[in-house]
């Protein structure tokens, strides 16, 4: 499955180009102005593609020029009402392209725990011992009220 910021195939780009109010130079300028509200001017690169999403709904993709975001693309989705010639901004976001560096899939803590992690402490982190006392010893005496005793 392609990533959300991947470049659309030629047929999808051609379909987007058929909707002139959403794919014209004025629409690209509108998308760039929308990006100027959420990103610095030097963070937005060249317009790379327009993707047809649905009837009267086109997403414009711009390269992201921010350091550390190689392969990411700014996306601006434009729409227009039926029989209207005026484009409206629906959504602005930053999406990962095919070359974007992403974090690995999340793994639950219990599955990440390795045997050597247990060997260092002698027990699993977060487990409770029956001899741990969390009582409020010394409360009201000016001392630190919570003491941890073994």
Automatic annotation (TrEMBL):
Region (Disordered): 120-150
Domain of life: Bacteria
Name of the protein in its database record: DUF3027 domain-containing protein
Originating species: Actinomyces lilanjuaniae
